[in-house]
Amino acid sequence: MTDVIVLGLDGATWDVLDPLIKDGRLPNIERVKSNGPSGTLESTFPPITAPAWLSMATSQNPGKTGVFYFLNREDPDSFEFESVGSDKFHGQSFWDVLLARGYDVGVFNFPMLYPPYSLGENGFMVSGLGSPEDDTITTPNNLKSELDEVADGYEIKVPYADPKYRGRPGKLESDLQGIVEKRERAIEYLLTEKRPDVFFGVISATDWAQHYFWRYHDSSHPLYEADGDADYDDAIGRLWERVDETVGLVADIAEREDATLLLVSDHGFGPVNKTFHSNAWLESEGFRVPTEQSPVQKLRTNYFPYLRRFVEPVVTAIPQLNDLAKSVGKSIRGSPGEAVDWDRSIAFAPKQNLTCGMIYMLSDDPEDRKAVVNTLSELRDTDGNRLEVEVYSPEDLYDGSNVKLAPDILFTIDNFACAVDPRFSTDDEFVTTGPPSAARSGGHRMEGIYCASGPNIESGGSADKNLLDIAPTILYALDEPIPEVMDGNVLKDVFTDEALSERSERREPLENLVEANIGSTKRDTNAVEKQLEDLGYI
């Protein structure tokens, strides 16, 4: 019998869901929401897939996990970046505690959880975003072939930011609808045939759809065209209707099993109306000094944005050139860190900070950091209007032994409505109108969602929570001890009085609760970077 089911809806926000619920278009999400407590689930900072899902699984803030984006340092004295892999989860996640205590646990399509590792004889793990499209994404190994059969060819991702979808919203919508169908078939098979005690599955297509289709959905967006193709102004709504069918299937299974059901998201969503080009700005202020460059390097830095503008329409017209264009582009564009004069520069921005701003200081002088922060705080747009810039130190946001690995300066502009792009632009301005690319017209926000229902769950109620609370709440629901390292709180107010009387909250050292001798895993950072580029994350 399955006791707990958690369904992750990547990027879900009440800003999108509530109007659809009001219109009667999401009856199953409405059913779960009305049967128990619901509210906003605060994300990690930044509200990004990699740190957020990891922190949800481990209930550890990024200062402990050392994960602040998709690529992270492992040494505070180095600017070598590594991708996130399953070694960050292994031995730290709630499912590792349950495994050690005899539970059969199933984890499905969980982002950055690659390579998968064993969850015991009857458990299973299916890696999600950050995994290759091959047969190495499951444990047990033969589960991949089973998923291929039930899903008519299982797939990891739809690369919505790939140039092949530029100007082809209909093709993208069809592919997103298709991958949700595959996810649903896989989830139904795993829940009904494998029947784990605890199941945590993630649907990612909701995130990809909102990135791409926000400009069709939001009439106030800079890229919205009032006289444009109206067929796609409801593409987000249609995808959510399809996902609602999956929620209904899962909710029905939860009811049959008398299981606790949680719907959660890793972050929320909203428009991206502007773009701030961080490295160009740092250079203009004298904080970042470029190296002396060869003609090829100058081409990379100065002319790649123009080349990208020229090539993308060509690829749109001739999709067969897509792979060649991506290969050539990768070979010539370089990365923002390659052209930095490390000795003369004070600061630089890494290549992956599209949601919030990240700056690494190359100077140890506190006055230099103060100068960067003060100048950044005075930032204005092209019309001279002061931008809403919020600047943070790592110590403001995190605690733990890995705070030292965080960027030295983190910031948001206009509450994430202005993206921060380290790449150089064809525009002379540092703040430009519109998103970094049309495929990222929507962006992440801090406010995700949660709903809870089940026989041990109170009916109704609403309160804001934190995603760090999910893992300890799952353990508490099963009356199991909670690792002391977990930062989150048990959501006791979601349980009935009877359920509370039958459980006790107990905290114990992590090493007492998980299996010892956990090995390390090998990650292919280059392969992960390619996938992240296809999804527009770096």
Short description:
This protein has 538 residues and is an alpha/beta fold. The protein has helices spanning 14-22, 27-34, 49-58, 62-65, 94-100, 143-151, 169-194, 205-217, 235-257, 278-284, 295-317, 322-333, 366-377, 394-397, 470-477, 497-501, 525-534, and strands at 4-9, 38-42, 71-73, 81-83, 105-110, 124-127, 138-139, 198-203, 260-264, 268-271, 274-277, 347-348, 357-361, 389-392, 409-413, 418-421, 431-433, 442-445, 447-453, 465-466, 482-483, 507-508.
How is this structure best described in words?
- The protein is α/β, with parallel strands linked by helices and 538 residues long.
- It folds into 2 domains: 4-270 and 445-534, Alkaline Phosphatase, subunit A (3-Layer(aba) Sandwich); 274-437, no CATH class.
- The chain has helices spanning 14-22, 27-34, 49-58, 62-65, 94-100, 143-151, 169-194, 205-217, 235-257, 278-284, 295-317, 322-333, 366-377, 394-397, 470-477, 497-501, 525-534; strands spanning 4-9, 38-42, 71-73, 81-83, 105-110, 124-127, 138-139, 198-203, 260-264, 268-271, 274-277, 347-348, 357-361, 389-392, 409-413, 418-421, 431-433, 442-445, 447-453, 465-466, 482-483, 507-508.
- The strands form 6 sheets. The chain has a 9-stranded mixed β-sheet with strand order 7-6-5-8-1-9-19-2-20, with helices on both faces. The protein has a 4-stranded antiparallel β-sheet with strand order 12-13-15-14.
- A hairpin with an 8-residue loop joins β12 and β13.
- α2 (27-34) packs across α9 (235-257).
- The protein is globular and about 65 Å long.
- The model is unreliable at 324-336 (pLDDT under 50).
